[in-house]
Amino acid sequence: MDQSRIRNFSIIAHIDHGKSTLADRLLERTGAISERDMRAQLLDEMDLERERGITIKANAVRIDYTAQDGLEYEFNIIDTPGHVDFSYEVSRSLEACEGALLLVDASQGVEAQTLANAYMAIESGLEIIPVVNKIDLPAADPDRVAEELVGILGGDVEDVIRVSAKSGIGVDELLEEIVTSLPPPEGEPDASLRALVFDSYYDTYRGVVALVRVVDGSLSEGDDIRLMASGEDLVVDEVGVRRPSIERTKRLGSGEAGYVITGVKDIDLIRVGDTVTHAADPATDALAGYDEPKPMVYSGLFPTDGDDFERLREALDKLRLNDSSLLYAPETSRALGFGFRVGFLGLLHMEIVRERLEREYDLDLVATAPSVEYVANLTDGSSVIVQSPQDLPDAGVRASIEEPYVKVMIITPAEYIGTVMELVQTKRGEMGEMNYLSTERVELHYLMPLSEIVFDFFDLLKSRTRGYASLDYEPDSYRESDLVRVDILLNSQPVDAFSTIVHRDRATTYGRAMVKKLRELIPRQLFDVPIQAAIGSRIISRETVKAKRKDVTAKCYGGDITRKRKLLERQKEGKKRMKMVGSVEVPQEAFVAALKIGDE
Q1: I need a labelling partner for 161 at 20 to 30 A (CA). Which of 124, 526, 572, 587 fits?
Q2: Distance (Å, rounded) from C-alpha 381 to C-alpha 378?
Q3: Which residues span the domain enclosing 550?
Q4: Among 452, 481, 510, where does a domain finish?
C-alpha cells in the first residue's frame, strides 16, 4: 500500500462513551466483517470486558476503505480503554498513531477522562477529529456538547462530526473525514528498519506475539532482527495483520501496523516500548518508546492453597506480558503464607487483574487491603520506601513519613459543587482552580492524598452527584503527613494481613470499624477471642468473640452448690489452657471485608 494512503488512528474517550461500538460500525461499513459474524464489542475479546461493558485492553485492527475519490485506503484502528486506571494503554496507543477520534457522549458531554485523553493526544502531536456520539438518544444535546469540544480543541462547531455509533448515523461522513483530515504516516521506506513494539500478548502455542508499528524500513518473514533495548537477536517466523481475524501477510512496510511472531517463549525478551531493527543493518537511534508505568496502589495476593504458589508465579509472569504495567515481588505473611506484593495502576486495575488470575488460570486468591507507596525518613538521615504496612520502620527510628499526593480533576454539574467540595475536604483535599466549561458544568482541580482516593472516594463521589460527576487524577509529589500504622490483633497475636497505614485523625475510626466487622465474621471458638486494634503498644479499640459454652451443670440435680462450682472451675481451667495453645481460624470473607471498611 502506498504510504500516502495509510491512516493510523486511535479512538479515545471517557469510559462508556461508545468507543467499542464505533469501532464495530467502522468494521461493518468497510466490509471488514460479515453481518453473520458481527457481534457487539467485537474488539473486546475478554469475557470480562463483555460482562462489564468496558474496554480493558487496547486492540488493533486493519480495515480497507474505498473513499469517494475512488482510491483505496488502509486504516489501522486502535480501540483504547476509557477508565483512568488504564490511561497507560491509551498513551502507548497514541505513540503508534498520527491521529485520534475524540469521542464524546451527546447526553453526558465532556468528562474528566475526555479532557485527560485530549491533552495526552495534543502532547503527542496528533491530529484530533472531534466526534459527538449517541445523537439519537432522547436526552442528547449535540449542539451544547459540540460547543464544549470546540472550547477545548478550538475550531468551528461545524467541524464537529455527529454520529450514532449504534444506528450508524454519520459513520460514512466520519470515514471521509478520516481520509481528508488525518495525515499519512511519515517514515523512510528505504531506511534501516525501526519498528515500535506498542503491545504484546502470550499465546500458549506460539509464544510471544508482538504488535508493532513499522516507522522506517520494512519487516519480512525470515528476517534476523534485534531488539535494541534488550540486545536480543531473533528470527521472524511470521508477520501479519488483524482484519480482525489474523491474516498472514509475510511483510509489513513503512507506516503499517501488524503482529510479529518469533517463536520466543521467554516473556522477558520482548518488552513493550522496545525498538525492532535488523541485526545485519541496525538503526543508529531507537524510537522514543514509553515511560515506565508507576504503580499507584499495592496489595498482597496470596493463594488460599499454599501449593498453588508456583502456579500463581507462572500466571503473573504470563499476565505481565499482556499487561506491562503490572509489577510484583514475592512476599511472606504469617497469616496467609507465601504470595506476592503486586503494584497496580488503581483499584479497578487491581480488581480486573485478580479476576483474570482466578478465571484464566483457575486460582483461588486472597487479596490484602490496598495501600500506596510511602517514604519513611529515618533519624539517621536515610529514607526507606514503604510498599506494605509491615515495611514501616518502628516509631523510635522514624523521623517522619511522606505520602504521595495527586492532582485531581473533577467535572460535575454546577448544582453539586457544594457536596463535592464537602466530600473532598473530608478527604484532606486542597482546593485549586475552578473553571466553568459551560453554565451547567464545572471543572474542579484539587491536590489530594492518593491514599484517600484508593478506598471509596470514587463511589462516594458518584453517589453524592447521582452518577453525574467524573474523576481523573495524575501523580504530583510527596508530602510529609501525620501517619500511623494500625495493627489488628487476634488472641493477642498481630495479623499482618489486616495492618494498614492511615492518618492519625482516622486511625481510631478505622480501628473500631475493623474490629467490629471482624467480630461478626470470625466464627466462635471454644474460648474467648479478643480482637484488638493497636497503634504501637497502645490499644485503641477492642471487641470479643464470646466462646462456645457447654452447660456442664446440666446433669446436676439439686445437691450441694459446691459440686456445680467444681464443674464450672474445671471448665474455666480447660478454656484457659485451650486459649494458650489454640489457634484462631480466619475465614476468607474477613480478609475481603478489609477492603470494604467505609462502604456502610
Answers
A1: 124
A2: 6
A3: 485-596
A4: 481
